């Protein structure tokens, strides 16, 4: 239903958008163009549009992946960023990381009350000798850098979802399993009362006209997580990895499973060995499924999205529901359903 609605909505966007029903049809568009930007989930369509403005004018992929996901972080109707669901204590904590074409990286973990964690992650990379800043320290640094401290309050949607969750306070982390619409209990709703999916993360990878790769990943993390819980998204090699000689990858879904296999590092290393982006993602998914067994894997969603140095891309996930957005021209910004294992 959502896919259909999104399709109709996308028809009204500035950049031409096409939704293909073919699970791996590219609507006749070449897979292997430069520049190109990819991002996870349906919010990726709007994020790609912003990133494309930079890429189309010959800009750097690194700037594109920052500016692109800032759109999603700003959107109050989206679960990414300050509009997202809080932890068990009712506080929104944000994780993000960014990597450039030189292998530099920066990240923030459990950052509170800052609208653009991705930009703070960039500053950590550019202005400190460190890769990560966490919690209060990350916030202090952000404020020193001129980022305004936003009010400590939940978005109307998040407040509603949190109140619903508090009725049972049942702690059973689960994430992004969409085909069970209606069958979900209150612990981690995959669909919000406003009809939007609970995609609390956006990952973006891009190749610019010079053939340089960069990536970003930003999230409010798992809904109603334990205070202090950190997922894969801000971790180099888990939620995001870029090697400018080979390719870039991002992940989404149950972060704990991605962390245990160093998911995006694995995907990039498989591409180095000659795997196509799709097959590299498939093999990384396979490792997670093998580790958990089929029965348990049915309760888990993880998706990987990858791009190689030639501009070829692909994705794979454990089960149906994951989609990604690809933009490679002024008229092509498309949401594609990922292939899945189960
Ligand atoms: C996490 N991987 O915190 C993130 C969640 C996610 O769409 O991808 N949600 O584990």
Automatic annotation (TrEMBL):
Per the UniProt record, the site (Cleavage) maps to 200-201
A molecular function annotated in GO for this UniProt entry is: hydrolase activity, acting on carbon-nitrogen (but not peptide) bonds, in linear amides
Q: Report the active site residues.
A: 201 (nucleophile)
Q: Which residues bind substrate?
A: 229-232, 252-255
Q: Name one GO cellular component term.
A: cytoplasm
Q: Which InterPro entries match?
A: Ntn_hydrolases_N, Peptidase_T2
PANTHER family linked: L-ASPARAGINASE (PTHR10188), N(4)-(BETA-N-ACETYLGLUCOSAMINYL)-L-ASPARAGINASE (PTHR10188:SF6)
Protein name listed in UniProt: N(4)-(Beta-N-acetylglucosaminyl)-L-asparaginase
* Taxonomic lineage: Bacteria, Pseudomonadati, Bacteroidota, Chitinophagia, Chitinophagales
